[in-house]
Every structure is written in C-alpha cells, then in structure tokens.
Amino acid sequence: MDTPLIKVLVVDDDPALRQLLADYLNRHGYDTLLAADGRDLTQRIQRYCPDLIVLDRMLPDGDGAEACRRLRQQGEDIPVILLTGRDETVDRVVGLEAGADDYVGKPFDPRELLARIEAVLRRKKGASALVKEQAMAFGPFVFDPATRQLYKNHVPIKLAGGEINLLEALIKNSGKPLSRERLLALARDDDEGERNDRAIDIAVLRLRRSIEDDPKQPRWIQTVWGIGYRFSP
Q1: Which of 38, 47, 71, 195 has the fewest other C-beta atoms within 10 Å?
Q2: How far apart are alpha carbons 223 and 183 in whole angstroms?
Q3: Which pTM was predicted?
Q4: CB atoms inside a 10 Å sphere around CB 179
Q5: Left if phi > 0, otherwise alpha if psi is -120 to 50, otherwise beta: which for 175?
Q6: Tally of CA atoms within 13 A in the half-sphere of 37 that contains its CB
C-alpha cells in the first residue's frame, strides 16, 4: 500500500511564490495546498488536515503571527513555519512566541525551506511517538494506544472498530473542538465505504452509551454546537 503524501498548506498572497513552492514541494514528494490569505484558515485545516503550514507573516487580511497565535489558543498543534520579508531578531521572537515552530526570512532558497520543513516534521514525529506510548486515563477508564484497547476499572470494554477509531481520534485531540468533517478524516478506516456526518453522529452515540454514565448528559464526549465534538478529560 502506498504511503499517503505529506500535506503542506502554503498561505501567501504572492501567486508567483505560491506556484514556485507548489512546484518545488510537489517534485519532492509533498502534496501542496495553496491559499492566498488567512481567511477561514481554521476551516481549511479541518477540511484538508494538513501536516504542516507555511504561513506568510504579512497577509492582506492580517498578521500571520497572530493567525498562528489564534490556532495555538484553539488547541491546534499543526507545525507552522512563518515566512517574512523582515528577517530581524524581533520578528523572529514575535513569531516564535506566537507558537511558530520555525521562521524563514524572504528572500529564501526553496532548498532551505524544504530542509526546515523536513526538520520540523522530524521533531514533530519524534514528539508524537513519545505521546503515543503513554496510556490515557480519564475517570475509571484507561485507553492503551499500543493495543487500541479501552479498559474500565481494568476490565476490557468491547468496542467496534469505528468506535475505537473515533475514540482514538478524540483522545489524541483532547480539548480541541473537532468538526464532523475532521473526525471523518481522522477516524476513517480505509476498508470502510463512503461515510458521512450522520455516521459520525451514530458512532458518537454508541461510544457515549459505552463510556458515559448518562449519554444524554455526556461528561467525556461533549457536543460543540455549530462545530462538532470535543473530548474533555
């Protein structure tokens, strides 16, 4: 089975630079998504689930550093590399304090950006591996990511594959509101057929029946009106 391409979202108002980066990154095995500004950045993330964002500091509709800060405040941990035409120490500090993972000044060689992208992804992969080794405890429950098994008071709970996928996706994004579309992408099983928002609602209902004392007043899997669901440990 082919390994899925790593998705990089490039947000920059310069169409020539966007196309240059798209051509270059695509030649090096990345799936490049393009955006001209930061409008609806959260929705783009939920729809396309990029693995990394290259974000221009000076956008026509706002400051890229502030956009990055808002993502971090929302609990989004996708790696961000900021681009700027002002390669000064103070701008680097502002970007890093906003939650950016790295900072590249314009003009730059695409080879440098590629090297930064690969370095950030390696660091992210290493951190994720450490997190995945740890079991997640909430109330009387423990979820073991290594075996993908849920226990209640040390007794295994039998869940269907789709429910396990959903629980794992929610737990790995604890505290973050996830849209139904994002959950479909995160919890999708390649062996499953076409799924829709209703399938997520049904899976949530079944999962609540397994882990909630009162599924009508859920403690762990909360509904976020207008968005989707959030796991609240």
Answers
A1: 47
A2: 13
A3: 0.59
A4: 20
A5: left
A6: 6
